Amino acid sequence: MRNPEVTDFRQNMRRKAEEIAQERKKMTLLEKAKYLYPPNLDNNPTLPVYLAEKLKSNQLMVAVTIESGTEDIQQMTKNFRIPQEAHPKELIMLVLQKLSSTLGQALGDPTKFILKARGREEYLLDTGCNTITQYKYIREMISQGKIPHLLMTLKSRVPGLEDAVSENGISNSCPSPVPPPRPPKPKRGNTPSHSPKKPLKVNVPSPLRTDRRKTLGGVTSIWTINETFSITVNAIRNVNCNDDSKIHVRAGLFHGHDIMGDIKDTDFARLEDKKATWNQTLDFGISARDVPRMSRLCFSLLVIHGGKKGKGKEKRLAPNAVPLAWVNIMVFDYKDMLQQGPKQLHLWPLKDDITTEHSLHHIGTVVSNPNEESAPELLVTFHNFGCSDPVVFPPIATVLEFAHRHEEREEDGQPIYSMPDASNSTLQDLENMLYKDPFQQLHEQEKETVWNLREECKKHFPECLPKLLSCVTWDSHEKVAVMQALLSNWPKILQEHALELLDCSYASKAVRKFAVECLKDMSDTDLLQYLLQLVQVLKYEAYLENDLSEFLMQRALANQKIGHYFFWLLRSEMHVPSVSVKFGILLEAYCRGAVLHMKTLQRQVEALEKLRSINILVKGEQYSGKVGLKHCTLSLTAKAKLCHI
Fold this sequence. Notes:
The chain is α+β, with helices and mostly antiparallel strands. It is 34% helix and 18% strand. The chain has helices at residues 4-24, 29-36, 49-52, 88-103, 136-143, 396-408, 424-434, 444-452, 454-460, 465-469, 477-488, 495-500, 509-519, 524-537, 547-558, 560-571, 580-593, 598-618, 625-633, 636-642; strands at residues 59-67, 74-83, 113-117, 123-124, 149-154, 220-221, 228-237, 246-255, 258-265, 269-270, 275-287, 296-304, 321-330, 341-346, 348-349, 377-382, 391-392, 410-411, 414-415. The strands form 5 sheets. Strands 8, 9, 10, 12, 13 and 15 form a 6-stranded antiparallel sheet that branches. A 5-stranded mixed sheet has the order 2-1-5-3-4, with helices on one face. Strand 18 and strand 19 form a beta hairpin. Helix 16 (560-571) packs antiparallel against helix 17 (580-593). It comes from Lingula anatina. Pfam families: PI3K_C2, PI3K_rbd, PI3Ka. Residues 165-212 are annotated as: Disordered. One of its GO terms (cellular component) is plasma membrane.
């Protein structure tokens, strides 16, 4: 795929995943066990009172089945009574001492053994700080009034922890459950795809080092442009409508759910040979310097079926105009550069569940329809505002410096964007506005009051950050800069509140980065609870490279249980064209970083494919009814497909 963003994202994720895989080779046996079989612990280390009351004299009865590998004690089961504060290692030592006195011989080093919940893929690892009653399996058995049944076995028998098997012995060429995207073929004389890329002709630094832009020439900051933002809609082709149909294009700038400027329509044009031409400039009535960094330009194709076209404004507000397709594109690319020059956008068909008052699907993907042969193709041109150099959005250092200068400017003796310490009555009014029912929107005057008291919000009500963000005027680059400066030292908020900031309403890159920072302290148990929603949130990320993708990848490669769910949540949506590239690259990176997990995943994928082929076979016309189904399952074809499942 000849897309620099895809290439850069794939290389970065592959490099990070392989670095984690190399670090895992240096892990101790306990660290590797924590990765392969993460302890299923309760967040509260103290045993609840209602469970402690079920124990006799604070003693826990445990049944242990011993597998030591010797012929004398094959599958021997004994009951042991231990204190509730005991650790797994203490239980292992107690078992070995009792068996040694019974058999009259030493049974080996206690560190060579491990405890496992019988009938489950859960191990009671001795981390040194977790008591045996902190494991959820033990608490579940106590609550049910049952005796926990554990299996004590050698660590060398645990898959993945065998002394003879190490990660160095596993080939990196293990077949991947998801075929990685094919890299672009280098042309003759060009640098191969695996070698460092040649620098671009335009002297623009990498997105990982945007702070160098101040010292590099050849770029123009969009904050220095005084013109209004505008584009030119040139033409559209491959429209699947009857000839002589009247069509027009609607366009709008969005930041989250907020409309930036005005929504504009082209004139109606008559469709001829599935094509129409406008070459019409649309001015959105917003200064180019005020366009937010994460703004997206949304287009919608509308057609009139029957009826006469009105005159003047009536032709633009025709009630019988029906939206047919849509497409979105980011105003700035992943390197902070303003889109410039002609662009070819392939539209997505409009589904029945997409209904908006302005006929623009602003929360849809910013990826063009990959089905280029049948999709309508919209030709638009981004203006360069008379600049010969590429136009870029200023880096974060420049934004913070700009905000600091504006904070120091004074008007009538008071800073423009700050207020003196608020009184108790003012704080009470602020609290009432911040904790107002979410279904009741704040009035403009209330939003202005909340914004003016933003320092008090940070000091007294930091959890109400989402409410403050809804009061930001995102089409003012001064206020956006002040908000980013305020966010840079905002105290961390609860994880439940941080999850709200990942909604599509909060498009700001700084806001989403802050939300991910607040989630980094989330426990593995809590992360598993929200993993499905977090993977779905990846669809709202405008760029392939984002903080949420990196966070989820790091946690998935640090915990195989999380990685297992992460893998299947991604793979289950590989059929969705809008996210197939993004999810495919994440899957490839995970497979490269989780080599020990590959064998299990490969067998599961093969089993799934066999079941899918059987499903197709059963649905065939030659098999109908119960007799046909029985004949199908007994056929040689079905047996061949189900072998080794």
